[in-house]
Amino acid sequence: MTLQELRYLVALADSGHFGQAAETCFVSQSTLSTGLKKLEDYLGVILFDRSLKRVVPTPIGREIVESARRIVEEAAHIREVASYARDPMERTVHLGVIPTLGPYYLPHVLTRVREAHPGLRLLLREEMTPHMLAHLAEGKLDAGLLALPIQDPTLEVKALFKEPFLAAMPAGHALARAKSVDIDALAKAGLLLLEEGHCLRDQALDACHLQGLKSEEIRATSLETLRQMVAMGLGVTLMPALACADSSPVTASVKLKPLAKPGASRSIGLVWRRRSPLAYSMERLAETLAASLPPHTLPVK
Question: What's the number of domains the chain is made of?
Fold first, then answer.
């Protein structure tokens, strides 16, 4: 039983496809298949059900995959510990970021991160929270930038900053004349939200204590679509502060007002696996991010 065969095992369990697993392991499909067959012969058990369209582990296979995953992670940890002799921040990090944060936050911090850690290479991937958490658990991502709270005992969580919500309405709307907007008035004015599945939708409702609110039937698939809908006069919405810094012609048709009720915000944090071989590097990255507060945001108390 070799470490490489265990890597093949984990890759196939994660992908469910021999070709994709082979690509992940940078080997040919025949090499991966041969390695897994050798492993099954050595253990004397069938690890995968190959009769289905998607290859899935057998019951005993699932148990062995979890043990193999821990062994592969520990092997990676040994390599990372050895690399600390050089520089713990000279490495590649696969970083997930939620779509309602990435385009507005990353331009502010990437230069600061590059200056603080010139040897750190960030490979960025926009993902919604459920997919990001799944990929963190599978080791496909090293860390994630997302909205808190995250209740997962396997993850380390570092809060970075708080991002207030602002009320957004068409320039000619009656609420646009007020200095601040009461959240109840906003809710009654035809509140537009992102579609189901976007974490920002639940964050906005929770932060403003609007759980159970039935919003307009028209729902947006992205923040920029939401902004366009408000500019067209289709309704009003809540926008995170970092997304409000745009100065495009669309934003000129949208008025932004603070909420009369204080404390309506979401917390943004960096998360990574507690057992990750990159844990120390992630702590350093979190410190750098927390020290570089974006405009219009608040420090975590």
Answer: 3
Phi, psi (deg, nearest 5) at residue 145: -105, 115
Half-sphere exposure of 239 (CA within 13 A, CB side): 29
Distance in angstroms (rounded) separating the CA atoms of residues 173 and 177: 8
In the structure encoding, which two tokens stand for residue 224, read together? 């920029």
User: Do residue 208 and residue 63 come from a single domain?
Assistant: no
Domain span including residue 59: 3-83
User: Structure tokens of 85?
Assistant: 């002799």
User: Do 75 and 102 have their domain in common?
Assistant: no
Mean pLDDT of 225-232: 90
Of the pLDDT bands very low, low, confident and very high (cuts 50, 70, 90), residue 273 is very high
One domain for residues 280 and 141: yes
276 contacts 142 by C-beta, under 8 angstroms: yes
Instruction: Give the residue among 289, 293, 199 at the shortest CA–CA distance from 242.
Output: 293
pLDDT band at 197 (very low <50, low <70, confident <90, very high): low
Q: 279: buried, middle or exposed (CB in 10 Å: 19+, 13-18, 0-12)?
A: middle
Between CA 28 and CA 18 the distance in angstroms is: 9
User: What average pLDDT does range 162-171 have in this prediction?
Assistant: 91
Per the confidence metrics, is the pTM higher than 0.85? Answer: no
Tokens 């108390």: give the residue: 301
